[in-house]
Every structure is written in C-alpha cells, then in structure tokens.
Design brief:
Shape: globular
Strand content: 25-35%
Largest sheet: 5 strands, parallel
Radius of gyration: 19 Å
Structural class: alpha/beta
Strand order of the largest sheet: 2-1-3-6-7
Distance between the termini: 57 Å
Helix content: 25-40%
Number of strands: 18
Low-confidence stretches: none
Order of helices and strands: EHEHEEEHEHEHHEEEEEHEEEEEHE
CATH architecture of the largest domain: 3-Layer(aba) Sandwich
C-alpha cells in the first residue's frame, strides 16, 4: 500500500533533495504534493488528505506549529529542521519523529518505520527522544570548518569562523567574511545551514544566515520585527522575519551573549 505523502519546505532545493531520497529509497512513499508556507499548507490540507507529512519548522510566513492550530492534521507528522531547540515543541504538537538536517537515509528509515505503524498505536516518544539525541550528535559531527569558494581559476578556502553572514540577492547566494570580502557561493542557504553549527549561526529569514559574532546591535521595530546591525555592515537592511523572531531571541538568550539593544 502506498503512503501518500506531503512535503512542507520553503527551500526549493531542500524539498527536491528530500523528495529524491524518498523516491530512491522508499518505493511505498508516494509524494502527492509540496507546499512552502503556513498558509499554503493550511489551504492544501483543507482540500486534500495524506498519510504522512515531512514538515520543516521554519516556513516562509511563520512556524509550522501554526498549521496545527488552523487545521486538524490527521496525518503522521515528521518534523525536519536544522535547529534542535524546537524538539520539545515538536513532540507537544504530536510529531511522531524529529529529524535534524542534514537528513540521512538511516534517519528516514526510522521515521518511515514509524509511519508504517497503525495510527492507533501510540508512538514511543522515549525512543524518538533517544534517536533525536543521536541525530543531534551526528549533526554536530557533520559541521564543516570551512567552505571552498571557486573564483575564476582560483580555489579559496574560507574558514567557518571567518564568516559574518550569508545572504541571497538576485538569485545568487553571497558569503560575507568578517573582514568585508564577499564571495558568490553555489550552495543553497538550506544546504549551507546544514553544515553550520546552530549554536553559532541562525537563519533569520529565507534570505539570510547570520553569525552570532557578527551582531553588533539589535533594533526593535514596529510590528514585532528586529533589525540587526552587523560588522561588517551589510549591503542591505538585515531584519529577522516575524516567523523566526521567537527562535532568534531564544538563540541569542541561550548563547550567553548580551548584544546591544535599541
């Protein structure tokens, strides 16, 4: 029997990579749809039904938990994200598994084995928590210490500790170093975030990943947004999207750093 599946992910490349892994390794998974936001997912679920949902936490217009408050989700839910501090919230909202990016085939095997359990069976959350801890360790071990930049006929290594922020503009991704040098980087922001330590970097919007060390001042704005000043100064105004504000403030708080607020 096919497992009808929805993918909820706002990064096109991440969605495509997950779909490829599912189709290549799990023939009983049938992907029948994909959405990128809270609103589009709620609309989709009101007119469609699925057996399973792979759901990223941080979407283009907010956090996926808002979906559960707007529509009765009957499908089995697998939360996917690069940030570990959402784990308990994911369990509270009824997710049967929680996968840290980058998602391995082994982790998918565990999640899909739970999907195959009849709906009436209560998930073993202690086992999920143990598996989640293992995933955190695997993710920490996979953090890279450098990125390789291809610049014409040169190959330039950039150490992770030298990165101030990474942003998207005009369909290109740019890496800005702490000494103000900008490079074009080929990977998507989602792929890059999977290789960075979530303790040191945070994806403040769809278009920007920022280093904790680069933040010099945080400005509160009208409407619940925050504007960030960085060193070096960015080529455009860097703001934290509303959907990521709570996670950002928690990240700052847990870091032990006390940035200047205005």
């Amino acid at each position: 029997m096919k497992i009808r599946t929805l993918i909820v992910e706002d990064e096109a490349m991440a969605s495509e990579n997950l779909a490829m892994k599912l189709r290549s390794n799990f023939p009983d998974i049938e992907i029948i749809g994909s959405t990128t936001s809270v609103n589009s997912t709620v609309r989709w679920l009101k007119t469609n039904s699925v057996d399973a949902i792979f759901m990223d936490i941080e979407l283009s217009d907010g956090l996926c938990f808002d979906i559960f408050r707007q529509v009765d989700v009957k499908a089995r839910v697998i939360i996917t994200t690069a940030y570990s501090f959402y784990a308990i919230k994911a369990f509270e909202d009824g997710a049967i598994d929680y996968l840290l990016k980058p998602i391995s085939v082994k982790a998918l095997e565990r999640a899909i084995s739970r999907i195959r359990i009849p709906q009436s069976t209560t998930p073993d959350f202690s086992a999920v928590e143990k598996a989640f801890t293992d995933d955190m360790q695997d993710s920490a071990n996979s953090n890279t210490d450098r990125f390789i930049i291809h610049l014409y006929d040169k190959i330039i290594p950039v150490m992770t500790n030298d990165i101030a922020y990474i942003y998207s503009e005009n369909k290109n991704n740019f890496l800005m170093t702490k000494n103000g040098i900008s490079y074009v980087i080929e990977s998507s922001l989602d792929e890059i975030s999977e290789k960075l330590s979530p303790k040191k970097f945070f994806k403040i919007s769809r278009n920007c990943l920022i280093s904790l060390d680069a933040i010099s001042c945080i400005h509160r704005m009208v409407g619940g947004k925050y504007r960030i000043e960085t060193i070096p100064a960015p080529p455009y105004e860097i703001t934290v999207s509303r959907g990521r504000t709570k996670g950002f403030l928690k990240w700052i708080d847990e870091s032990g750093v006390n940035p200047h607020y205005n």
